[in-house]
Amino acid sequence: MNARSHYDAAVIGAGPAGLTAGIYLSRAKLKTLIVDEGIAGGQMVLTHEIANYPGIESISGYQLSNTMKKQAAKFGCEIRTNISIRRLELSGHVKRLILSDGTEYTSDAVILASGGRPRTLGVKGETEFKGMGISYCATCDGDFFSDKEIIVIGGGNSALEEAVSLTKYARKVTIVHQFDHFQAFENAVEEARNNNKIDFIMESEIASFNGDMKLESVDIKNLRTGEIKNFRTDGAFIFIGYSPNTEFLKGIVDLNQRGEIIVDTNMQTSLQGVYAAGDSIVKKFRQVTTAVGDGTIAALAASAYINELKVESKKLVNV
Amino acid sequence: MLYTNLKHLESAADLKKAISENENVMVICGRMGPMCIPVYGIAEELEKEYPHVKFYDMEFDNPESHIIRSLPEVRGFMGIPFTIYYKNGKVVKATSSIQTMVQVRSILDKEFAAKVNA
Lengths: 319, 118
Fold this sequence. Notes:
Oligomer: heterodimer
Distance between the termini of chain A: 23 Å
CATH architecture of chain B: 3-Layer(aba) Sandwich
Largest interface: A-B, 28 and 24 residues
Largest sheet of chain B: 5 strands, mixed
CATH topology of the largest domain in chain A: FAD/NAD(P)-binding domain
Number of domains of chain B: 1
Helix content of chain A: 10-25%
CATH superfamily of the largest domain in chain A: FAD/NAD(P)-binding domain
CATH superfamily of chain B: Glutaredoxin
């Protein structure tokens, strides 16, 4: 084993859960590595304003992410971002991590804090027309659709709130939703229903996005009748929730049906020495504060586990 | 204001100067939003790896960014950031909306291939 590439703990994910774990582990003098396939901060970095983080009246997600990253680095935590994991071996006593650039690391403990990401529809034309009519952010791109006719896909709080917000720009907004009812809170549904610029197409889903260089229409499938109709539109905003980033963990640790990592109260997964924290675990509330709490628990549990290993190893040496 | 760690272009004159003085330039024109921040982060990450490329950002809502928003290459773009790649002062590539590290790296490698020192 290459000593330089062995860590006490490896943390997968540099969102608030992973960075918090990194801060606690490094401060406990444990050699710690954080790896993330995106930039540090996870979903938090994308939040315009965080006004409910105790002790800080208001801060941008970008600033809070940078502060957490600096804090972890200050304690000696190594952070590698924008690099993906090629292979992961977690079942043995020594955990093994191989990155896309071929670098290999081993560790005694691993904390999985891979977070979540906005879901995509995965239908024809979605990738092709991203930025050319398809958007996932009303605040970012709403003004490109001034006086245009657009659709919003989804039925949760984000979809309905963003649909209302998009009526500031668009001439008409049509919400397309797969069920006959919305999952959003009643007040969000009421606000959308009372807005005369908003129409609804229920029990339907997008079959394809169509156009030439830019989005011009969508094919909408009625899920009750199976009928597919072409619907002209200038733009489409997709708000269909979040998925946990756990595809790479299938068959490695226990996941529930939604792909979320199953943990106990110490954030331990189904494998010894492997913990999980943040938006990728089974839980009801996903907030920066809950991720930070999860990361703390996972780091403390992992520290205790690593220290036990060290004690055991010393005993063996002394025998 | 864009509070990234990239160098900021505040005016059209700044941009003209940057592309006239540097062979390879990448400019990310956006806001501090969820589609833009990841692209700034990628550029920050790649700055050291691509010393022959100059990386800048420019605020989309700054009227001076008209110099980017009026480019023929961004006609039809409906998602920020607008990311523009200039070689010898000319636009060689432009992308709309969020991009991944792999996508950005692929453009940098294709358009700004590093010189091989003899």
